[in-house]
Amino acid sequence: MISKHLQAGSALSLVYEREDPQAQINLNPTTSPETFDVPDANIIIRSSDLVKFRVHKSVLALASPFFRDLVSLPQPSDSESVDGLPVVEVPEDSELLNSLVSFLYPVRAVIPNSYEKVLYLLAACQKYEMVSVQSSIRAKVKCGEFPAPRGTESFPAYAIASISWLIPEMESAARQTLDHPMTFKALGKGLRLFEGWALRDLASFRSRCRDSLITCLDSFLEVRPPGPSSIWIGCPEALSRASRDYRQNPILPKWLSQFLLRNQNYLELETFTCSLDIHSTIRAEYLAAFQSHGSCHFCSAVHMNHGLTFCVELENKLTQAYHKS
């Protein structure tokens, strides 16, 4: 929220109320950078830890409609100044501000040392309407120049992104959380960063992904053509278990139905205590299940002629279901 002084247009000195998560938690604090001092600067941005950044109004105005409007306001005679330069106070700390300002000048970008800090940097860009800077940061994350979330870091990343409505980062982090259990242990200290609605939305997203995967496995339990598993109809072991009306009600080989049902049960019972990336291990599980039935000449022939195609189709459809939600 912008201070009442700015809303009234009566001062260039600016103070933000500390609503953003960075103001509430300082992850991996480091020593403040030296004062950023550009030759011929005509304005000072002062960080929350009182580090001064001497920059140009024209550069700020070009990068940010927010600052363009701010510097266009007349400066009252009693407003704060340092060495004759007007002062703008912001809630970001000097480490974040140093990264942000480095994008405004032809100098090497200052790289944050964690993905959480990248998110706070993106949030600052969003707040100050620095669209081109935000795009540059996202490009650097994508190419690996800036940190990206690893492992269970995706949970606090989702929480931070949701607070600032960083939609691409929310979607990416949510997808990455599916590769890990959603438990208190996995969430860890990052749990305190979550708004209630964000935690509910993430849990709902996980449930939708589980349902898509279960529906996919259901399609492989369908024995009639054109179901992909219809190629396995005719296994002698299955015939021995079938009723007399086998042609009307065929059944899958036991090894195959158990393999598919085992994955379904796993998803239904362990939605939040397991990872949902079953597509990454399904081929190995298929081969292990088939080998347990390797003495069957019928299934061996089907596997020899169609097994790879069947397995790839199962893997691909599970991957599509995983990314569908």
From TrEMBL:
InterPro entries in the record, alphabetically? Answer: BTB/POZ_dom (IPR000210), SKP1/BTB/POZ_sf (IPR011333)
**Domain called BTB: residue spans:** 39-113
Organism per entry: Russula ochroleuca
Q: What is this protein called?
A: BTB domain-containing protein
**SUPFAM superfamilies referenced in this protein's UniProt entry, alphabetically:** POZ domain (SSF54695)
The record ties this protein, via Gene3D superfamilies, to: Potassium Channel Kv1.1, Chain A
Q: Which Pfam families match?
A: BTB
